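User: Please predict structures.

Assistant: First:
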Amino acid sequence: MSKNDEYYMKQAILEAKKAFDKGEVPVGAIIVFQDRIIARGHNLRETKKSVLGHAEINAIDKATKKLKQKFLDDCLMYVTLEPCLMCAGAIQAARVKKVIYSAKEPKFGCLESQGNVYQIFKGNHDVQVIGGLLEEVTSKMMKDFFKTIRENKL
C-alpha cells in the first residue's frame, strides 16, 4: 500500500466521523479517479430512513453523477468498514476497479469475513480487494460509537 492509500483512507475516516456526529453508524467512503477524490459518502440510513443509505451506495451515486456515466472503471473506493453483500454487489455492478477497506465486519462483511463474494460470484468485472488499512483507528471509532449508544440508552 502506498502513502496515498493512507491519505485517502483518512479522508474516508473523516466521512465516518460525519456519520458518527449525526448518530449514524460511523462508516465513510470516498471514490478516487485519476488521483482525485470525486465523491464522498457516509452512512445516512437513519437520516434517510432507508436501508440503501450505506456510505458506499451514497459515494457510488455521487461518483456516477460526477462522471456522468454509470460505470466507474479505473476508480478506487476507500471505505472504513468491510462492505456488506448489497454494497459489494453495487461496487461490482459499478465496475469499481479496487476496494480498499479498513476494519473487518464479522457479521456482514462479504469481502473477507463471511467469504469473498467476488470469488464465489464471478461477474463480468473483477474487483481487487485490500483490507486492514488503518484498522485500529476505524475499529476504535466503531467501538466508541456503540459504547455511546449503549450508555445513552441506559
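Second:
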Amino acid sequence: MLKAFKRHWWKWVFALLVLMVALIYWYLRPYRPDIEALAAMKSTEEITVRNEGQVILFEPKKPVQPSMIYYPGGLVEPESYAPYAQALAQADHRIYIVKMPVNLAIFGGDRAASILATKHQDETFVIGGHSLGGVMAARFAAMHANELAGVFFLASYPDSKGSLVSANLPVLSLVGSNDGAVNQDALMKAKANLPNTTEYHTIQGGNHSQFGSYGFQRGDLPSSISAKKQLDETIKLLLNWEQTAINPVKPTQ
C-alpha cells in the first residue's frame, strides 16, 4: 500500500486540496436574499433603488435627515436588507447599504468614507449594521465621529477598536430575545465600549436572522414572532431614535 501511495501521491494531494476548497466554499457561502428582499429591490413611484458600485441606494423623493449607512452582517448578501431599507426610505430617509468584499465587512470597514465624501448638501449620517457589520461600523464611527450624527447596532456590539465612549454620539442597540448567534457574554461586556446614554431595546421573540431577509442563519434560535413583526418593531425603534436622539435637519432640497 505504501508503494501505491508513493506512485500516486499527487492524486492524494489533489483530492485533499479539492476537499479543502470545498470546505472553504461551504463555510464562506453567502446567505442570499429571500423573495421578500428581492421584491423590495425594485423601484417604486416614491423610492428609487440604485444598485451601483459598492452601494445599494434607496432614494426617496423628498429625503429628510439623517441618512443611514448600513453595513451587512457577515456572509450576508447586501440585498438581504432591502426590506429594512425600503421601510426606512418610506419614512423619507435616504439609505445606503454598503456592499462588502466576499460579504465580510471586516474587509471593507472604510467603505463608508466614499459615501461621506460625496454627500449631498446639508446631508447628515448615522451609521450602523447587523452582526459583524455593526462591529465594523463602530470602528469606522470611532475614527470619524465628527462626520457622523449617530451609531446603531442590530444584534451587534462594538469591540475595543470601535469604542464609542468618547465619541459623543447617540447610540442605539437592538437585539432579539431569541438570538442564538450573538455571543451574549461579549454583548454584555461590550457595554463598556458604549456611552452611558446608549439606548438598549430587546425585541421579544426576535432572533438574529430576522434582522435581515435571508432565511435562517447557522447557530441561531427559532423566533417566536414573524419576520414582518420583527421588521416593524425594528423600524419603529430606529425611527423613534432618529427623531428624538439625532438633531433634526431640514429636508434635502
